Amino acid sequence: MSSLLKIRAERDQMSAIERRIADFMLENAHLLRDYSSQQLADALQISQSSVVKFSQKLGFKGYPDLKYSIGEAVARGSDVPVKTAAKSARATVRESLAETLWQSKSRAEEETRLINDAGTLSEIATLLSRAGRVFCIGFGDDGLAAQAFAQRLALLGTLALHHADAVPMTATISSAERGDVLVVFSEQGQHAALNQLCRQFRERQGKIVSVTRHTSNPLRAHADATLLVSAHDERSHVQPLLYQSALQHLLDQIFVLMCDGDRLEQLNTNLEHVQHLLDPKL
Amino acid sequence: MSSLLKIRAERDQMSAIERRIADFMLENAHLLRDYSSQQLADALQISQSSVVKFSQKLGFKGYPDLKYSIGEAVARGSDVPVKTAAKSARATVRESLAETLWQSKSRAEEETRLINDAGTLSEIATLLSRAGRVFCIGFGDDGLAAQAFAQRLALLGTLALHHADAVPMTATISSAERGDVLVVFSEQGQHAALNQLCRQFRERQGKIVSVTRHTSNPLRAHADATLLVSAHDERSHVQPLLYQSALQHLLDQIFVLMCDGDRLEQLNTNLEHVQHLLDPKL
DNA sequence: AGCGGTGGTCAATAATTTATTCTTGCTTCA
DNA sequence: TGAAGCAAGAATAAATTATTGACCACCGCT
Q1: Which residue has the higher pLDDT, B30 or B94?
Q2: What span, in angstroms and rounded, lies between the C-alpha atoms of A158 and A153?
Q3: Full-model pTM
Q4: What is the spatial distance between Cα B103 and Cα B123, in angstroms, rounded to a whole number?
Q5: A65 is near strand D: CB distance < 7 Å
Q6: Which residues of chain A have pLDDT under 50?
Q7: Domains and CATH numbers, chain B
Q8: Protein-proximal nucleotides of chain C (any atom < 7 Å from a CB)
Q9: Within 7 Å: CB of A48 and strand D?
Q10: Which residues from chain B sit within 8 angstroms of residue A144, using beta carbons?
Q11: Residues A103, A85: Cα–Cα separation, whole Å
Q12: Which of A145, A190, A207, B9 is deepest in the core (most CB within 10 A)?
């Protein structure tokens, strides 16, 4: 996996100084060859140990190891595109819109893949498979994702409930018991009401899965398992699209993982019923 | 020039020990990452200084520099192909789920791109931009897509209404007038109630946009403009995911096309408000 | 507001790695 | 034979990197 992508993916979750290091590396990846950890530290006016800790935090043995890895990434050409360099001709933009937008989505997907290890995904899939009931909650766009996910689960024969409002959810949750799972969708993970809800749910012995952006946020801390999304674009109207796409892909993976033997049959039966409902002729 | 090539070229005029170093590096280029000059020397039963001198003789600043360069060469692929049999089968399957699923989505996206020309997309974007009110309707998964789209439009300052039920929609539509647009989401396009609705809407001089799978279906026939989705997978539980993804991408394109000047400002204002709502602290 | 606790930073320093120096031994050629 | 030239290694200097411990800021909680 490209170390540059990894840096990009983790960037959100970094402290100010770490982010400066990350940015420097992303921008000057090809110059890094001539930088020792000390020189890099001097260039950024920070301490050398910060550079080393940065490297280790990303999972490398140390600074030289990270440097080596970046060297590989650059050589491989999987360099992070400097910017989506605002193309001059509007016509060009239009023609390739589908393609460039999809590329952005692909990048977001890859970043997201890097920060959720496969083990966690299957753990969550197992957790949901064995759950008594699954509660999904989220507001705004997150609410729609929650609802869609709940519908998917329902097709698999899992009892899944969804709310886009904290008040009825509070009531519903008061009946939760051991074995139930709460899936909380919150891009920023800052919503006080949701944290409250989690505490309440935890008291009733339920398991909590959080789905948030890859920043440090209170919601993650409360959760038994976390799903993380990374999606970036300087254009404020595009970023939400990328977030939604990466999030959806994550959920889709969970869904696929849950589709085994019995549940798959259940799904097929349900799909057939739905088909009939929509078009009695068939 | 690739450092590996250089080593091979110089090999013939090297001393015995240098040649052993050269051979070791050529054979184990991909393992060199984990060797310090001392370890390499130990492995070859030679002195560490010989390794350093070897590096310098070849024109590198020192051993790390040579190592870095070899890393690049390997990454660039100018090396003997590495065997990738390391991972266990199960782990590989798991890890690649994300990737293969995404590839499937990419395929669906591409198919979909091919059957909707850019012109149609911008026409629809224009239509929606100029619309008085936009009505979105769909059932099941389509309903969620409709809702999400309506929410997006609302953020752009367009008056957008959404229903997942034909009955209230009928009522709402009865107030439709020229300049309004109805966006009908229906994967199969077979739903009688929706056709009914379209007829009613057309009588009131509204424009109709259909969003369906790329089959011949009655809904397409009723529409002024059509969006088509292509998504195929033999696994019944995967196909809906692909459909959803491709559909979403189409809608995202429309959305991006609609984001210009005024509306973009409106969007940013709205996003800010939403941000405040979710996290008053910011 | 106050209070542990956590996490991040830096200066100092330890540890490791790399580079140089200096010595030795070998070969070559006058 | 002996001086020059060169390769290699041991010892050591230099550099780079990694760790430690102290300090501070911030966060969530009471």
Answers
A1: B30
A2: 5
A3: 0.80
A4: 29
A5: yes
A6: 81-91, 93-94, 280-282
A7: 3-76 (1.10.10.10), 98-278 (3.40.50.10490)
A8: 7-12, 16-21
A9: yes
A10: 144, 147-148, 151
A11: 14
A12: A145
